[in-house]
Amino acid sequence: MFRLSDYRKKNSRQRVFFDRQELRQLMDLYSRRVATGEWKDYAIDQYGPTCVFSIFRHTFDQPLFAVAKRAVGKNCDYVVFSGRQQLKSGRTMTEALTVLEKQIRLVE
Fold first, then answer.
1. Residue 15: CB partners within 8 Å, gap ≥ 6?
2. What is the mean pLDDT of the chain?
3. Are 67 and 28 in contact (CB under 8 A)?
4. What are the distances in angstroms from CA 6 to CA 3, 11, 47?
5. Torsion-angle region of residue 37: left (phi > 0), alpha (psi -120 to 50) or beta?
6. Which of 14, 18, 86, 103 could form a Cys-Cys staple with 22, CB 3.0–4.6 A?
7. How far, in whole angstroms, is CA 73 from its chain's centroid?
């Protein structure tokens, strides 16, 4: 028999998660873009010491953007990707998400 509690304790130091405030920031941005019809779907994945929030235009497409939270020693680093291209990185989620914030334009 395999005990999950033993596995979780052994691998807990390398796990990274988005906290409540980070998820709120991601979902606020995501919901604004869904309201404008730009984005349709999202996914949250975990790859060892990295947690990724992926944003899709259509459900079956490749992600348009991915926001990754990576463990760097005792701190975390946030990186925004478009495909394999790194668009922005920062020490805070707010700093990294500035690249995805849409500029408001006057339309005449």
1. 46, 48, 49
2. 87
3. no
4. 6, 9, 19
5. left
6. 18
7. 19
Domain boundaries defined on the chain = 38-98
Extract the tokens encoding 65: 């953007």
| Three-class SS of the chain | CCCHHHHHHHHHHHCCCCCHHHHHHHHHHHHHHHHCCCCCEEEEEEECCEEEEEEECCCCCCCCEEEEEEEECCEEEEEEEECCEEEEEECCHHHHHCCCCCCCCCCC
pTM value is: 0.81
Which tens digits make up the pLDDT trace of 37-74? 999 999 999 988 899 999 999 888 899 999 999 988 88
